[in-house]
Amino acid sequence: MSDPNYRFYVIAKVQASENGLPRWKEILVPLIGVAKTEPKAVTYYWGKSETGSKDLMWGIEGYLDAEGFDIDHPSSDTFKNEFKKVEGEKLLSGDPELHRYDFEGGWFKRAGDKNADALETYVKVTHIYTAEGKRESVFPHLADFTKAAKENPDVWSSAYLKEQDDPTLITLWERFSNTSAANAREGRGVYKDLFEPLKESGVVTEVVQNGVFTFNGFLDQTPSGLKK
């Protein structure tokens, strides 16, 4: 691994079949368990969408490199066995929507935070679309934004990711103690203060926010592949 600080992430939007969410929760238990033991696995954190279909899920998976996601994880016997169940029981409604990212900045955990590994949290996934050639100019604003968020005890994660295939997309991934904490930040105008000037200047063209109630997984572990 050339850069020990590099991280690869995927954010997945998965539409389960009607009433399929409870079964997916069961299937994710062994998938999360095996991912936690994989040498390149960093993050595997899943939840249910706040809006839209009651069976819509969102997940974030992180690895030391893309090979961890593309090859190592799906090659495990556990993955193969569980996805036989997914296919056999027809638990998917359409193809998952996947975005592939490089980690750009911010943080997923505070050192010493007693809530660092909480499973039942509220996550806000914000897709930020920029004008062509303007994405890099947004990163300093997000660096300041995520640094300031670290001072708020109800913000438990605040990181931003650079999409690999769409040069206009950045995704801000935030985790909160609860929905009230997220709504309070909205009410104080922190997102308006961040995005409105960027929209007015033509740098940002669109902002799409999605709420997620998380229910299982792990976040920002030190992968065993770094310890060798």
Account of the 3D structure:
The chain is α+β, with helices and mostly antiparallel strands and 228 residues long. 29% of the residues lie in helices and 34% in strands. The protein has six helices and eight strands. It has helices at 21-37, 66-72, 77-88, 139-149, 179-187, 190-200, and strands at 8-15, 41-49, 56-63, 97-107, 122-130, 155-163, 169-176, 204-218. The protein has an eight-stranded antiparallel barrel with strand order 1-3-2-8-5-7-6-4, surrounded by five helices. Helix 1 packs antiparallel against helix 3. The chain starts with 7 loop residues before the first strand and ends in a 10-residue tail after the last strand.
> Are there runs of 5+ residues with pLDDT below 50, and where?
none
Arithmetic mean pLDDT? 95
Number of strands: 8
Q: List the quaternary state of the chains.
A: single chain
Helix content: 25-40%
Class from secondary-structure proportions: alpha+beta
Tally the helices.
6
Strand content: 25-35%
The helix/strand order is EHEEHHEEHEEHHE
Largest sheet: 8 strands, antiparallel, barrel
Q: What would the principal axes of the Cα set say about the shape?
A: globular
Side by side, the strands of the main sheet go: 1-3-2-8-5-7-6-4
How far apart are the first and last residues' alpha carbons, in Å?
11 Å
Gyration radius from CA atoms, angstroms: 17 Å
